[in-house]
From TrEMBL:
Classification lineage: Bacteria, Bacillati, Actinomycetota, Actinomycetes, Mycobacteriales
Homology family: Belongs to the sulfatase family.
Pfam families: Sulfatase (PF00884)
PANTHER family xref list: ARYLSULFATASE FAMILY MEMBER, BLL2667 PROTEIN
Protein name: Type I phosphodiesterase / nucleotide pyrophosphatase family protein
Compositional bias segments (type: Polar residues): 333-349
Residue ranges of every copy of the Sulfatase N-terminal domain listed in the record: 13-298
């Protein structure tokens, strides 16, 4: 996949009419590798001029929607909005990170417990839910030197600011739909692609490329550059203590098959089509279920052929039936809903992990490993 092509796997080659964004992972939020349609392009401003990728993507998305509605006001539109946030590097203007100064000084264990309590209060988890055990790879916050706690707290402040910054600009996009009187009749699905990432390692990182070369960052370097964290001169990522806390109440993280790595919340809003407001649904669904859900909501049968090209059968199952029925059965088959049971069945570091663990169980069963 190069600037000279082939382009069949680029967005315009896969059915989109317009594209603006990045095609690779880990893109820089201040100096992103940008593509417009089938051509590489440069950011329209610099960090010193206030440039950041997220508002740039929002502005381009609004312009594309406006163009589409101006040309064909009655024609539906589909927008796939995929920011680099809150993927690493955790880049955000300092004033956003500073809003969270001191909020994480109590450490990741205290934060994890606070989040778990709040999740149950909000009904996101049942009252009988159990918090998974502390991870043996995560250091006890209270045993860390004061300088390390200061560094790690700042890294989380930056991430929290990054998340709020993202939320703010997604809100701008939603408000734009309201201004166009399109919001009530637009299905919006908001989901992450995986659980929180542990690529910052045990000490966090200000140069994450080291992770991909199996070279650990040092606390000393992080402390020396603590005031740069979140800015354009570093490629920062928080330590995996915050990763574990970010995946509350689950175990582990991205790149592993535990629920902390593979389970994500999904938010769906469609004011004209969903009567329920602010309710929780606990049915299991998969990303491949999103397309059949949209098709069912629009009362469209999946096409068998497009432009003379025979289409592969859709493998997902609609979950539209859960929109107005909290007690509805999940649409996924038992084999799909149990795909979580792929955790290692070997002994790693002396700890046995076995298949067949109940989905609601917070900890592995005790068993002989094979």
């Amino acid at each position: 996949m190069t600037a000279a092509g082939p382009y069949d796997r680029w967005p315009l080659g896969r059915g989109f009419e317009r594209y603006y964004g990045f095609l690779g992972g880990d893109t820089h939020q201040y100096y992103p590798d940008l593509v417009r349609d089938n051509s590489q392009t440069e950011p329209e401003a610099t960090p010193e001029q206030g440039y950041h990728l997220t508002p740039d993507l929002v502005n381009k998305a609004k312009a594309m929607i406006a163009d589409a509605k101006q040309v064909a006001p009655d024609k539906p539109f589909f927008l796939y909005f995929a920011p680099g946030a809150t993927h690493s590097p955790h880049h955000v203007p300092k004033q956003w990170a500073d809003r969270y100064a001191g909020k994480f000084d109590a450490g990741w264990e205290a934060y994890r417990q606070r989040v778990f309590t709040r999740q149950r209060e909000l009904g996101l988890l049942p009252a009988t839910a159990e918090l998974s055990a502390p991870d043996p790879d995560v250091a006890d916050w209270e045993t860390l030197p004061a300088d390390e706690r200061r560094l790690y707290a700042r890294m989380m402040e930056v991430f929290a600011g990054f998340l709020e910054h993202t939320d703010h600009y997604i809100g701008e996009l939603v408000q734009f739909l309201k201004d166009l009187h399109e919001y009530d009749n637009t299905v919006i699905m908001l989901v992450s692609d995986n659980g929180a990432s542990a690529e910052g390692g045990p000490t966090g990182s200000v140069t994450e490329v080291r992770f991909f070369n199996n070279v650990a960052d040092t606390v000393e370097e992080g402390l020396a550059r603590i005031d740069e964290i979140g800015g354009p001169t570093v490629f920062n990522h928080f330590p995996w203590g915050w990763t574990h806390a970010g995946n509350t109440p689950f175990r582990r993280w991205k790149r592993e098959t535990y629920r902390g790595g593979s389970s994500d919340p999904l938010i769906v809003t469609w004011p004209r089509g969903i009567a329920a407001r602010g309710e929780v649904r606990s049915q299991y669904a998969h990303l491949i279920d999103m397309v059949p859900t949209v098709l069912e909501a629009l009362r469209i049968d999946p096409p068998t052929s497009i432009g003379g090209v025979t289409q592969s059968p859709i493998e997902g199952v609609s979950f539209a039936h859960t929109f107005d029925d909290a007690a509805a059965p999940p649409g996924t088959s038992p084999s799909t809903s149990r795909c979580w049971a792929t955790a290692r069945s070997t002994t790693t570091g002396g700890a046995p992990y076995v298949l067949g663990r109940e989905r609601r169980s917070p900890n592995p069963l005790t068993s002989s490993a094979t």
